[in-house]
Amino acid sequence: MNLTSERLLYIPVTEAEREGYMAWYTNDKVMKYITGKGLTKAQANERFAKAIESNLANPEMGLYVVKHRETNKNIGIAKLAYFNDNNTVEVGYGMMPDNWGQGYATEMLLCLMAHCRALPQIKTLVGIVKPENKASVKVLTKQGFVLDKVALSQGVEEAYYKLDL
C-alpha cells in the first residue's frame, strides 16, 4: 500500500526498491544512531529480505522507501511495524544526509501517524531513538510523543517515546 504526503511518496519495499533501501542501510552517517555504522552489504541484504517478508505478512503496516513526489529522488525510509501486540505500532523514519534539516522527518512522522489513526485497532505509537539523536527526539516530542522508558538493547541505550492515539 502506497502512502503519500505533501512532498513525499512512500513505496513499500519490493525488489524494485532494493537500491534505495540498500543505500540507506549501508550509509555510515545514516546508521550512526541506529547501529553505530553502516551495515555491510550482506547485513543490508538480510534486513532487506526481512522487510519484504514483513510487508507481505502485514500489508497494512510496512517498510517504505520514501521518494520525492516531483523529482522521484530517494529521500530515505519509513517504517510501521507492530510492536508487542496488534494495538501498538512502532513508527520509524530516516533520511539520507543531504535531506537532513528540510522538515522531511516531521512530514514522514505525520503521514505515518495519520495512517495509524485510520486503523481503529491501533491505540499506541512508539518511536525508538538513541537518546543522543536530539533531532529525532525533537521530531517525536513536537508531535506529542512522551518519553516512556530508556532501556539497553544489545548493550546500547535506547529511548522509547510513546503516543496514545
UniProtKB/TrEMBL annotation:
Family annotation (InterPro entries): Acyl_CoA_acyltransferase, GNAT_dom, N-acetyltransferase
Claim: RNA-binding is one of the keywords in the record: no
UniProt entry tagged with the keyword Cell cycle: no
Entry-linked Gene3D superfamilies: 3.40.630.30
Top-rank lineage group of the source organism: Bacteria
GO MF terms, alphabetically ordered: acyltransferase activity, transferring groups other than amino-acyl groups
Entries under Pfam families matching the protein: Acetyltransf_3
Residue intervals of the N-acetyltransferase domain: 8-165
Name this polypeptide is given: Acetyltransferase, gnat family, putative
